[in-house]
Amino acid sequence: MDSARSEILARIRAVARPKPAPVPRDYDTERAADDRVGLFVERVEDYKAVVHRVTEAELPQRIGDCLARREVSSMVAPPDLPESWRVAGVRWRLDDPPLSLPDVDSVDGVLTGSAVAIAETGTIVLDAGAVQGRRLLTLVPDYHLCVVRADQVEVSVPEALRRLDPTRPLTFVSGPSATSDIELDRVEGVHGPRTLEVLVVDG
């Protein structure tokens, strides 16, 4: 048995193999946009997400407005969420110590920051870094309110990837969670939040 196996492997190794053809790497790694933040907003809205452009000074008030409009009573948040973002009138559950899955599932939504955003695709990338928390926090609640700063917006995917650490747990968010079955019936909220609302902070 061993000799037959060895013979077969020897024959396989004896087969001449052509050298791999070189793979061209001449695709664009940078692209220009007249208004990269405006393009990002447009593309995110295409995904049926709600987007607001605000200033740094307006941010806490707009967070409160978003939550009040949805009649939110409880929110989960990463432990390092800025104090000014924790608006009054809402019960805040900070993920410290880490909350259980039932606890995260019991709140109305989650508020986080982001790592980087991609204008051309309308994608927000989370890497469990500052003001983002564990991946669980942004996949379980039905509503995600996400803060993206203008200086985090890159035009293209290659430019965004250069700002990310590939060893971190990366989550790419392109609109609310949605999927379709074979008959193209759209179902939202299966793999993540049914509603995505984005606050883009200018300046």
Automatic annotation (TrEMBL):
InterPro entries: FTHF_cligase-like_sf, LUD_dom, NagB/RpiA_transferase-like. Residues 40-201 form the LUD domain. Gene3D superfamilies: NagB/RpiA/CoA transferase-like. It holds the Pfam family LUD_dom. It comes from the Bacteria. Signal peptide: none annotated. PANTHER family: LACTATE UTILIZATION PROTEIN C. This is LUD domain-containing protein. It comes from Saccharomonospora cyanea NA-134.
